[in-house]
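REQUEST ID: PR-0412
SUBMITTED BY: lab tech R.K.
PRIORITY: routine
TASK: structure prediction, single protein chain
INPUT:
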Amino acid sequence: MSTALPALMDAVLYHGYSGTEGLTGFPNIGTYLIFAVILVPVYIMVISWFAGEPRDTKTGMLGVSYLIGITAQMWIGMFILTVIIGLVFYGGMPEPLGAAGPSNDSPIFSFL
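STATUS: complete
OUTPUT:
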């Protein structure tokens, strides 16, 4: 029975997905779509804060600092959530921090 448990865990948890073995998800078509197309209004807004009339550099810098703070908060929060999901459901740290591919050393399944 102990040899069937890892196979069962692989079948139930991992569904045949493996690690990407390389650059993990950043330079894909979705990244270019988001940064080159979706965020164009944000780029125009930030440029207009400094190039438009009336020009107020102090308010523009305040707006840029808000954008940087909100973006950092979202990215850091999602990174922490990704690490927690990787540890709980996939048995190890996500690929940039840990080894590629699934692991059977999940602490949540230590009682099995």
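NOTES: The chain has a mean pLDDT of 76.
REVIEWED BY: pending
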